[in-house]
């Protein structure tokens, strides 16, 4: 029997997690709650031109998250074709959470803290919101890592009958 390789499933889940985490950020914080745009701290969307520039950069952000999601789906499809890749829900969900956490950590550190191009929720408590965003990312990373570790022993059947462990009927 070939050794099980979880790497392809972790990579697929991680990339999907980055993309889907970015979609949650863009859809929830940028569009529905309208707390910020990509450049709202350096170019407040107070007039039509500034709003259009921010919308353009939000569009680039969404294009990036779409590419990450599409890449993750491609990797997931390829992993699903490989018999040595265990189809583990815990590993996959852990990688999704880890990818989302990685997105939050990188976006929170670079965009919110280092570049200051926008903050989660500008205003009197913006540092608390930014730190909460980072803490949520770290929580996702820790939870994702724990699930990936817990999935190490998962070896669901691949390419075989799902009912192979059920007793067979007499003469069957």
From TrEMBL:
This is Conserved uncharacterized protein. It holds the Pfam family DUF2243. It comes from Stigmatella aurantiaca (strain DW4/3-1). The chain crosses the membrane at residues 59-77, 89-106, 126-148. Keywords: Membrane, Transmembrane, Transmembrane helix. Residues 153-172 are annotated as: Disordered. The keyword Repeat does not apply.
């Amino acid at each position: 029997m070939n050794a099980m390789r979880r790497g392809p499933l972790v990579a697929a889940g991680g990339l999907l997690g980055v993309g889907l985490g970015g979609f949650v950020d863009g859809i929830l914080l940028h569009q529905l709650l309208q707390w910020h745009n990509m450049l709202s701290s350096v170019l407040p969307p107070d007039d039509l031109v500034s709003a259009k520039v921010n919308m353009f950069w939000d569009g680039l952000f969404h294009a990036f998250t779409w590419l990450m999601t599409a890449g993750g789906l491609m990797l997931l499809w390829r992993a699903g074709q490989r018999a040595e890749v265990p189809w583990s829900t815990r590993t996959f969900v852990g990688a999704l959470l880890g990818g989302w956490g990685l997105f939050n950590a990188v976006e929170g550190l670079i965009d919110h803290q280092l570049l200051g191009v926008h903050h989660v929720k500008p205003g009197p408590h913006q540092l608390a919101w930014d730190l909460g965003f980072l803490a949520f990312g770290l929580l996702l990373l820790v939870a994702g890592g724990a699930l990936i570790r817990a999935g190490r022993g998962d070896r669901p059947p691949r390419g075989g009958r799902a009912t192979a462990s059920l007793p067979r009927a007499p003469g069957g």
